[in-house]
Specification:
The chain is mainly β. Helices cover about 10% and strands about 30% of the residues. Strands 4, 5, 6, 7, 8, 9, 10, 11, 12, 13 and 14 form an 11-stranded antiparallel beta sheet that branches. A 3-stranded antiparallel beta sheet has the order 15-16-17, with no helix packed on it. Strands 1-18 form a two-stranded antiparallel sheet.
Length: about 350
């Protein structure tokens, strides 16, 4: 997962201006210190993106525009973002930050795995679970859409009518849990890693309702009466939320577990999963695409839809109007045009 495109709020305004000594001609500069073609005035009109990978100190120069920086800069950051440091002339004005590396998102770790999130204030959430670990039963106010990346997992849910759902998920598959639906996830023998997306950019994983959190804030006498148990039966209840925790190896097949949990209320239909890994991609000249939405093939996912797009090297995704997207692998150059004639190119 390389980057994702989410709008972030402006918390503080900072402007840096450079007015260095006058350079009569960029021919005075050593071309070996710059990216190929960077000192040519042709780069002004072509709008090409520079490759700063092998440049020790990337400079904000494009032909006769710009000039080498005097103060120390974040060279590694500038190598990764050449079009923000030496932007093409097609850029105009200021576009909200539309690129976010998940490497900058704080991580939360437990013995069972980890999870990191990015909301519009601090939208996806990436989670990783050790083999056989559980993501405990929980629910939240936002709709949850997931893209499963690696490993395998068994997911389950129950609705307000007492109907149940259970399925096994593999790389390339999706799930969608509507708001308020309690659900859980267990990694199978090869662990699990998946991306969660919520339809509320302000929603935080910290706002999730956890079963252990709920029960730990109720007197054990109340919990025991609710479940018609003796208080002594609750002596091993956790005293704090578990979130992700280690579990036992799954012994039953999916069919065996489904038969074990099914009640007289029946099963949830349509279910909350979609095996997009088995969906044939539509091929185009230069790439392919899989469309997953509530109209075409995933009826329960009424609030979120997705397209899995593969672009072959050197090919181009047609100009489009799009919302959020996540880069799963590879590298691209993207041009973003916003309202009021603002535009940026990002890599």
């Amino acid at each position: 997962m390389h980057a994702s495109t989410f709008t972030l709020p402006v918390l503080i305004g900072v402007t840096v201006l450079a007015l260095p000594a006058i350079i009569e001609s960029h021919s005075q500069l050593d071309a070996s210190d710059f990216a190929p073609g960077q000192l040519s005035n042709d780069s002004i009109t072509t709008g090409e993106s520079f490759n700063f990978t092998d440049v020790a100190t990337p400079e904000p120069v494009r032909g006769s525009f710009g000039t080498p920086a005097l103060a120390p800069e974040n060279d590694e950051g500038n190598r990764l973002n050449p079009n923000t440091w030496a932007p093409p002339v097609t850029d105009s004005g200021t576009v909200y930050n539309s690129k976010w590396p998940m490497a900058l998102s704080p991580n939360r770790m437990t013995t069972g795995g980890w999870g990191r999130q990015q909301t519009k204030t601090v939208l996806p959430i990436a989670e990783n679970m050790q083999p056989n670990a559980y993501r405990e039963l929980h629910w939240h106010t936002a709709n949850e859409w997931a893209y499963f990346q690696k490993g395998s997992a068994r997911i389950s849910a129950v609705n307000g009518e007492g109907q149940v759902f259970i399925d096994d998920i593999f790389p390339g598959d999706l799930w969608y849990f509507p708001s308020g639906i309690p659900h859980s996830i267990q990694a199978l023998e090869d662990g699990a890693e998946f991306l969660l997306v919520f339809d509320d950019g302000s929603f935080s994983e910290d706002e999730t309702f956890l079963l252990t959190d709920y029960i730990s804030h109720a007197p054990k006498e109340v919990v025991a009466k609710n479940f018609q148990l003796d208080v002594a039966d609750l002596k091993d209840l956790p005293e704090k939320p578990l979130w992700i925790f280690n579990g036992q190896k799954v012994k039953n097949t999916l069919a065996e577990d489904a038969a074990e949990i099914t009640t007289s209320a029946g099963t949830i239909n349509p279910g909350y999963s979609f095996h997009a890994s088995q969906l044939n991609a539509t091929a185009y000249k230069g790439g392919s695409v899989k469309i997953m939405d509530s109209v075409t093939n995933f009826p329960v996912a009424v609030a979120l839809s997705a397209a899995l797009v593969t672009v072959e090297p050197g090919s181009m995704r047609e100009m489009q109007v799009v919302q959020d997207h996540l880069m799963l692998s590879g590298a691209t150059i993207e041009k973003i045009f916003s309202e009021e004639k603002t535009a940026n190119v990002i890599i």
